[in-house]
Amino acid sequence: MDVGTTVEESRTWALNSSSSLKCSQNLSSIISTCNTTPYPDVCIDSLIRSNISNEISPNITTYLLNTLNTAISKSEKLTNMFLDAGNPNNVIEKQRGTIQDCKELQKITMSCLQRSVSLIQDAPINQRKQADAAAYLSAALTNKNTCLETLDSASGPLLLTLVSAVRDTYKHVSNALSILSSQKSHNNRRLCFNNRRLMDMGVPSWISKNLESRTRILESECDPSKMLTVAADGTGNFTTITDAINFAPNNSNDKTIIYIKKGVYEENVEIPTYKRNIFLRGDGTDATIITGKRSVADGWTTFRSTILDDLSSSSSRVKSYLGRPWKAYSRTVYLNSYIDDFINPAGWMQSFNDDDIQELNTLYYGEYDNYGLGSLTDD
Predict the structure, then answer these.
(1) Separation in Å, CA 18 to CA 5, 12, 377
(2) Which residues form the Pectinesterase inhibitor domain (predicted)?
(3) Whether CATH 1.20.140.40 fits 19-184
(4) Longest Cα separation, the chain
(5) What is the rounded CA–CA span in Å between residue 363 and residue 325?
(6) φ, ψ for residue 140 (rounded to 5)?
(7) Sign of the CA dihedral with 336 first, then 141, 79, and 51 last
């Protein structure tokens, strides 16, 4: 009997046994984590396929990043599918802008996913980064609902495949949000309709903490040489707001000021996600007027329709609200705004049933640094 060979075989068996035990422990951890998500089978399958169960010591952050990367991979494939869907023979639109809506929403989703990965990878992870990542993922989930609603009225040979791909892709987004949420407390993110929500985390990270920097652009005269001017009478650089936005640089880290002179602008203003840091400044609410004429009744999707009401003219007769939840994961924040007294003291209007408390807990409606009689949040 060769003792050396026997010892070596014993070592190999021990290593394999230890590896199998570790793999089994990791698998149990994956199953435990995934069982808390909305789509546990999808979660388990994606993590096992990524060979994460073979890693030495995976943790919940590892699971989260792998789930996000799977969502990004699926989103890239979905983006290509929407390009094919642009062919009228593949998807027939009943509402104008259906496929274009989904394309743009998908771009926003990709950006949300990539930003979330960046935040999670930026160690050390803290409450602020977790909250920002959760907001991005929540926004992505609303994109799914908006896209599916527009596709609901469409037809064509590619439609069912496209709808299935949308649902499949966003299962991974939903699971990622669930895993992220398990890392933090939800207590400070629950919406209570008995009181108006006041943002209590200080100045948001995307607003300068320097008060002078935040107010200078609103209160001082702008340097004409450093801004684009829109004038309906032809005295500016452009006659339409859309032309000025198209001229502005893409993905700029510097603020682009577009000054819109007094006049009526009959156009539907859209600012794409790649047109960053654009600031629109007018001559006042009674001087610079922008009107849009798209509506669902005219065949446009809700995403692209615009309806402007004159609330102040009927404020003595009708009380209004800052808003109400438009489905789960809604996000709305009013900041540095004048709010008049025709706003109901409750602020926000509940549209979910009491049985839908789980969906209520996904909402975030905030107010920060507003003024006016309707801005009080003490009630």
Answers:
(1) 20, 10, 59
(2) 26-179
(3) yes
(4) 101
(5) 7
(6) -60, -40
(7) positive
**Tokens (6 digits) for 212:** 């002078």
pLDDT digits (tens, 9 = 90+) for 20-69: 555 677 888 889 999 999 999 999 999 988 877 666 667 888 999 999 99
Q: If you ran DSSP here, which 8-state letter would residue 204 be given?
A: -
- Residue 234 CA to residue 104 CA, distance in Å, equals 31
The answer to whether 154 touches 98, Cβ cutoff 8 Å, is yes
Is the distance from CB of 343 to CB of 321 less than 8 angstroms? Answer: yes
**AA letter at 16:** N
Sorted by sequence, the CB contacts under 8 Å of residue 136 that are 6+ apart come out as: 112, 113, 115, 116, 119
The alpha-carbon radius of gyration of the chain (Å, integer) is 26
Tokens 């809506």 sit on residue: 101
Residue (of 187, 189, 145) closest to 364 by Cα position? 189
Listed as own residue / partner, the contacts of 64-67 with beta carbons closer than 8 Å and 24 or more positions apart are 64/120, 64/176, 64/179, 64/180, 64/183, 65/117, 65/120, 65/121, 67/43, 67/172, 67/175, 67/176, 67/179
Domain limits, the chain:
19-184, 193-207+309-379, 221-304
CA 259 to chain centroid, in Å, comes to: 27
Beta-sheet pairing, 364-368 with 227-230: unpaired
pTM for the model: 0.67
Residues of the chain with pLDDT > 70, as a percent, come to 72
User: Between the CA of residue 224 and those of 20, 30, 155, 212, 285, what are the distances in Å?
Assistant: 69, 58, 50, 20, 21
Q: How far apart are CA 342 and CA 340, in angstroms?
A: 6
Q: pLDDT (tens digit, 9 = 90+) per residue, 197-245?
A: 444 444 445 445 454 444 444 444 556 667 899 999 999 999 999 999 9
pLDDT of residue 340: 83
Q: Half-sphere exposure of 37 toward its Cβ, with a 13 Å CA cutoff?
A: 30
**CA-to-CA separations, 355 to 139, 352, 358, 361, 363, in angstroms, rounded:** 23, 8, 8, 12, 15
In which element (H, E) is residue 70 found?
helix 60-85
Give one word for 209, left, alpha or beta, with left for phi > 0 and alpha for psi -120 to 50.
Answer: alpha
